[in-house]
Design a protein that fits this description.
Elements (H helix, E strand, L loop, with lengths): L3 H17 L2 H14 L9 H39 L5 H21 L10 E8 L4 H20 L3 E9 L5 E9 L3 H5 L4 E8 L8 E13 L13 E6 L15 E9 L6 E8 L5 H28 L14 E6 L4 E4 L5 E2 L2 H5 L4 H18 L1
Parallel strand pairs: 4-9
Antiparallel strand pairs: 1-3, 1-5, 2-3, 4-5, 6-7, 7-8, 9-10, 10-11
Helix pairs in contact: 1-3, 1-4, 2-3, 3-4
Length: 374
């Protein structure tokens, strides 16, 4: 059975979390924000109303999440007293402890996600590296890993663009992961992922190294203001490929958006290229491509602000696209993150989407420093 020290730890962390989250302040703010929604004419400006309702929803969510933690802590305290009177069993006390600890750790974890974009959905893109079929197969394995993670955590997934490999796997894939804090969790995945294994595509059975790059950006919605220069946009269409079906390749439903971006701070120019084959409806694919463009432009502005505010030491928070962040060594049964040094021997579990410990290790090391510097 749990000790009095373990009970004391839970109660103290519950109390501390109430202060960190400013639950009393959030309750007052919620009353004020809900009053604004009752103003006559509130829904006349639909966009402003949507922003306001989003603010109310966010406040309610934090209050409810803390309410669950606090209720579990109180139940544990009561159970600890009841077991002395033999009203309940020691096993029931231990179960109450596990529940309280799980809720507490989850909320402490989420409290690390305080960046402006952390609560947003995300766009995740995977590109296979040099190495042909082996790298393309590796890219498809990473795609499955993130899809399983998203499914296990209740997120909605939609494929925006998909290009098959020459013999197996994929050359590139872009998909949206929609739900609260998808970006906050998956921003830790930005960078190059390295696979070492005996390749099934090598006749000599040699051990080979492959690479794939992962890019994660916030997925903006209509409540986020993003400036897009319409004159800098050009479009063309193509016949979309992908998983079979009678309508595949018969109509040019795929869209390709080119945007001539000029950095307002440095003057540097680059072309942003986006392809979308999400649906068989070309206008819908155009709409989805524009949403991806707005997400990329928003992320660029966000990265600039973060650099200007010097939130963390150079090279820590901002992960360069060329940086190798994690190695997956199948033969040695080892997956290691090179930024945090966290590693596990559960290779199969990781490839099945169990990457929460890697995410948590990243946030513990970098988000904690960031919060301290705010």
């Amino acid at each position: 059975m749990i000790t009095s020290d373990q009970l004391h730890d839970v109660l103290e962390r519950d109390k501390a979390l109430r202060g960190y989250l400013d639950i009393d302040g959030k309750n007052i703010q919620l009353e004020e924000e809900e009053l604004r929604t009752q103003d006559p004419g509130f829904w006349e400006d639909a966009k402003r109303a949507e922003v306001q309702m989003k603010k109310v929803k966010e406040l309610k969510k934090w209050i409810e999440l803390y309410g669950e933690v606090h209720a579990a802590a109180e139940e544990l305290e009561l159970a600890y007293e009841y077991v002395k009177e033999e009203i309940i069993t020691e096993e029931e006390v231990d179960a109450a402890y596990k529940k309280a600890l799980h809720l507490l750790e989850d909320l402490e974890f989420r409290n690390m996600l305080r960046d402006e974009a952390d609560q947003m959905s995300c766009v995740l893109k995977i590109n296979s590296g040099a190495g042909g079929t082996e790298s393309q197969d590796w890219a498809s394995m990473l795609m499955r890993m993130y899809q399983r993670w998203a499914e296990n955590n209740g997120y909605k997934i939609s494929i925006a663009n998909y290009q098959e490999g020459d013999e197996a796997g994929i050359k590139t894939v872009t998909f949206n992961i929609e739900g609260d804090y998808a970006y906050g969790y998956l921003k830790s995945e930005n960078g190059v992922h390295r696979l070492v294994r005996v390749s099934p595509y090598n006749a000599q059975g040699k051990r080979m190294t492959s690479f794939a790059s992962v890019f994660v950006t916030p997925l903006v919605d209509d409540t986020i203001e993003v400036k897009v220069e319409t004159a800098a946009i050009s479009w063309d269409t193509f016949r979309s490929g992908g998983a079979g079906g009678q309508n595949v390749n018969k109509v040019e439903s795929g869209v390709r958006l080119r945007y001539q971006f000029k950095d307002p701070y440095t003057g540097e120019e680059e072309e942003i290229l986006i392809e979308n084959t999400e649906t068989r409806d070309q206008p819908k694919n155009r709409e989805n491509a524009m949403r991806q463009l707005r997400s990329i432009l928003y992320d660029k502005e966000l990265q600039h602000r973060m650099a200007e505010q010097a939130k963390v030491e150079a090279g820590k928070k901002k992960i360069e696209w060329g940086s190798q962040i994690r190695s997956y060594v199948f033969d040695d049964r080892r997956v290691k993150d090179h930024r945090t040094n966290y590693q596990t021997s559960d290779v199969n579990g990781v490839m099945d989407g169990k990457i929460d410990d890697f995410i948590k290790a990243y946030l513990m090391e970098f988000a904690g420093e960031e919060s301290a510097e705010k």
